Amino acid sequence: MAEEDMLYGKARHLFGGIEPSNMKAFSVTAPGSGRPVITAVLPDNTVIDGQTLCTVAGAVIRKKSTGYPKDEFDGEKVAEIAESTTFTDVTANADGTYYYAAYPFTTQGVYNRNPANRAVFNEPEPMAAFTSRLVYSSASQTSHVELTATLPQGAAGAVIRKSTVGYPQDEEDGEVFQNITASTVITDTDVEEDVTYYYSAFVYTSTGAYNRDPANRTSCTVYAGEAPDDMAAFSVVCDAVNQAKITATLPGNKTEGDVEICTVAGAIIRRKTGSYPVNETDGEEVTDLKQSGTYTDMGLTGDTIYYYAAFPYSDRGMFNRNQTAENQASCKVFAPVAPGNMKAFSASSAAAGKIVLTATLPDNTIESGVTTSAVAGVMIRRKLDGYPANETDGTLVANLTESGTYTDTDIVGGQMYYYGAFPYSDKGLYNQNAVPDNQASAEGKTYEYLYGYDLDTANSNPATRVTYPADVDNTGFAAAKMGTSAFNYGGWPSTPGEKFMPRPCMLTFAGKVDHYLNPNDYTKKTDGTASKVADTSFGGNAMMEWPKIFVKRWQEGNIYHFRVSDVKLDDDFECWSNYDRQNHEIEHFYTPIFFGSNVSSKLRSISGQANSVSTTADQEITYAKANGADWYTEVVADRMLINDLLTMMAKSTDLQTAYGSGRTKSSNSSAISPGTMNTKGMFWGSTNGTDGVKVFGMENWWGNIWRRIAGWMLVNSVQKVKLTRGTKDGTTAADYNTTGDGYKSLSNAAPTGSSGGYISKCKTEKFGRFPYELSGSATTFECDAMWYSTGTRYAFVGGYWNNDLQAGPFYVNLNNAPSNSTSSVGAALSCKPLAA
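Above: the chain sequence. Below: its structure as tokens.
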């Protein structure tokens, strides 16, 4: 249609004709090409009662880049269509913004200019955010409107307009407030109280296209009001290190009549050092409290006074800045401190290669009810040349988080170790005080144990003459003793094989352990199966296996000293019992579990057999050696060692009272057989004088039957001894004998008295104590007897079944020749296998 025809049609409309309906569809999309694709569906003809009142002839489509065309003449003509169609606007750019309007017209030239027939291409997005709120200016004491305007991505800017009569409809409506080119927060100060302000934001592109979406609108009513009252309650307590606890109760709302003139919205809490904050922007903000309650202000500097002020505010942003006691509080913050010194810290050489550290952590430090140091643990370090200075100095030994003990196993014997304990708090603060409470030292032992006792030979009281000195591991041990029904080991080792404790076993004739016995039931092996303890066909004997034991004996004045260890601690320590017949040290030596029995002309240690008695010393030696070249009767070195160990454990020389009477009652008429104590454990005894006694797993160490032992003789009033079967002890005799030839003679040890009595004095040698003075009693000194006579006398020890209180581990008879043979005397085995 020509332009003049449109003018004509427009003129015709002035005089009559019916306007067509709106487009049935009108839209713009951007398919693959990116250019606008227009879909236009013409309206139907208008027909009423069968009469066509309006015949649609087509539609004019026009466009603009800054807003919609106002009529069929406005903007750029895109197309004039005579039928519904879809087409691409090839004159448009893919990245441009275009506002399209369709104007359907009739055959009479009447146009429909309804805004419903519009579509936009690439219109700017609406605002990402556009809000308003009432704020209160502390400087001017007036209310303002604060706008938050967030532009959409890609927008060039937005025109914000305002009005007091309604929302501006487009970028020219109302009053210009601000033209923004970036997202921002703007305060409108040109406002009056009790007035509602309407704001519209119109996003625009760089080409000048606008978004007029009603979503870009916000309003705010400016109210007059009052600031809140003072805080209802406000306090600060420094309740922990580096922090303060604030308790705040907001004031109530304020009303006049039925009108609320102040609605409390919260309180800004701020702090300073040196003085109180004067307003809600002064100092450092702690929190914006929205409701009454508590708040913990953390990360503060210790030993500093902090001044807190609360500024309650209303929902209109009006602040209370009163500098009153109700709005202010202060406190001095506690600083975290390092823990105190250790409550206890010690180091002790428990055994070779081990130092035991005992550490008791300090208590938490509390000041005015506040824990300023919560102890978390202790760092223990060590050095060789002095105490560590701090928690990083030296070698780390342990990091303990609770009191207790720790064993430092990286220890070299003879080396002094210096330990520093550095307790630390949960804040990582260390106590570095170089004080005795935090330091300990110990020398590394070269041994597993060092035990011993001192004996006052001038003290006749057997219960008090033995003491535990400070230089031994058993200083604080309780003494061992036989209880009512069970043995009490006190502080001493109780497990077979532990320290100096022997182990019960079945030893072959070749000197090899076939199997170990259950210490509480010799009829069983340690695995619970049946043992060979009563089997005479077993090629060996029931014996106690002892470890290598070094001893040192000496006397100073009236004090006899005995020390025992697993190693040779100095040149005076010697392992007399641990030498074979070829003078070599051996790892184990063996003593009999049972008294000797004669089985096929062999002296055996077997349960349930008859006691071998009425033999001479030579016969007993022959029967013993029939087991093998390394076997012999019991020897004096073993007797002296075991008696010293018994004295040490009991802390007494009255060993019948400590361990049991043994079978010694004067009314007894015979001995008990081997094996009656198989289930009695390692130690057992009674006071009835009939049941026997058991020590170190061996039956009847005293009482029942005299035990003839090799290596101890009295020849013409001179005590003679041989400690080893070979010549390691310095003797010249190639083996034990019954004459004393080649033996070591003891000086100043000739027995005194008519023929015997209770022992009152012993001669101390480095290999044992040998009685010679006999003016004691059954309740003094050793509490055991000694008998002697002139001639060549071969020792038997322990006493027999009716010797009563004369019997005991120290009891010795040097009154009989080696040829003596009687039913109350016999012998038992010993074995010292050749060194490997």
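DSSP finds four helices and 62 strands in the chain.
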